[in-house]
């Protein structure tokens, strides 16, 4: 048992070291000339536009369900008028960013891991290196920057759709105008609700892109490694999202709620 624990610890340290080297290579290639703008735009389309439907449907259902779940409790306390404010603050500050990031981890990180893993298996990455191309700059840098940009945009769109779903749910039982509902939602939000939520989505996007690229780029040879890379990317990215969220909540509490 002790030997197995030591072996596992050594493998973990090796993995951490490899990720550190990979991050250094990514950071160094950002500032090299010849940025692949066409690939970057294509990745923004693949990551952002192609994920919009899934994010929109999920956000709409979450907003609708949250209002239906909150209404009985708020009605018992005589605070039914606080439903728009409660939904807006909880959804935009915490629920929306985390759930949307988890969805994108399942879709985007697995896709990147499988794509780069298959390129590794078929030796396309080796062929790029032999031909003089820079696979890190073309494959890794463009994807990580695209996820860091698209995840915040998807979160903003998802938040708006989620609030609209809450409006429809509230109109199932109560009669409230569209303008009044969104006025209550927007007036309840402050800087400390919007800015930290937006900043942490950038880190969510970076984690999703980095983990997906690392797992795919460093996958082993063999067809089974493609599935392993995709699955490992989803699990690791999801764990990083929760870790980043916990750290962000602590930092926000120290800076804004003291």
UniProtKB/TrEMBL annotation:
It comes from the Bacteria. Its main location: membrane. Keywords: Membrane, Transmembrane, Transmembrane helix, Transport. Pfam families: MlaE. It is found in: Membrane. The chain crosses the membrane at residues 47-70, 91-112, 144-170, 191-217, 237-257. InterPro entries: ABC_MlaE_roteobac, Permease_MalE. It is a multi-pass membrane protein. Belongs to the MlaE permease family. This is ABC transporter permease.
């Amino acid at each position: 048992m002790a030997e197995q624990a030591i072996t596992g610890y050594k493998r973990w340290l090796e993995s951490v070291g490899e990720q550190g080297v990979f991050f250094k290579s990514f950071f160094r290639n950002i500032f090299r000339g010849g940025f692949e703008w066409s690939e970057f735009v294509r990745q923004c389309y693949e990551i952002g536009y192609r994920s919009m439907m899934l994010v929109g449907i999920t956000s709409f259902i979450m907003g609708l369900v949250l209002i239906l779940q909150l209404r009985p409790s708020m009605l018992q306390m005589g605070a039914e008028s606080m439903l728009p404010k409660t939904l807006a603050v909880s959804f935009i500050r915490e629920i929306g960013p985390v759930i949307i990031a988890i969805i994108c981890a399942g879709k985007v990180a697995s896709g990147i891991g499988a794509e780069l893993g298959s390129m590794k298996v078929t030796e396309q990455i080796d062929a790029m290196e032999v031909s003089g191309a820079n696979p890190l700059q073309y494959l890794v840098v463009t994807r990580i920057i695209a996820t860091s940009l698209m995840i915040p945009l998807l979160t903003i769109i998802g938040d708006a759709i989620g609030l609209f779903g809450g409006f429809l749910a509230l109109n199932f039982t109560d009669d409230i105008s569209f303008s009044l509902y969104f006025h209550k939602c927007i007036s309840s939000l402050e800087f400390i609700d919007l800015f930290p939520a937006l900043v942490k989505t950038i880190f969510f996007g970076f984690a999703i892109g980095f983990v997906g690229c690392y797992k795919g780029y460093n996958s082993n040879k063999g067809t089974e490694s493609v599935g392993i890379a995709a699955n490992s990317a989803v699990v690791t990215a999801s764990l990083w999202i929760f870790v980043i969220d916990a750290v962000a909540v602590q930092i926000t509490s120290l800076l804004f709620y003291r």
